[in-house]
Specification:
There is one protein chain. The protein has no helices and ten strands. It has a six-stranded mixed sheet, with no helix packed on it. A four-stranded antiparallel sheet has the order 1-3-8-7, with no helix packed on it. A hairpin with a 4-residue loop joins strand 7 and strand 8. The protein has about 120 residues and is mainly β.
Length: about 120
Amino acid sequence: QVQSVESGGGSVQSGGSLRLSCAASGYTYNPSCMGWFRQGLGKEREWVAYVNNPGNTNYADSVKGRFTASRDNAKNTLYLQMDSLKPEDTAMYYCARSSYTSCPTSSIYYKYWGQGTQVTVSS
């Protein structure tokens, strides 16, 4: 059974840092795309970042320059280093996988979602 488990969330003050992890189990191959999404209270889920299999990354404009995504294929784990956090980064953060060759930014093309990890940034 394929599972994803996010961890590393918490409460920090504005300007602080957190490192999220997403551990996967049950996979027999490394997916082409691994992505991070977030959903604030009362908001739609939005794409944050993705990492493709060679390790290339892409970020939403709102987090570019502050967040760094990476993956460790040997550990089947995805990471998100979040620096210079802002109150507007407050959300539940999710990871997911996609088999598309060109990594999409829409959540409909991803599957194997985890339960999420909460990030709260206070001003």
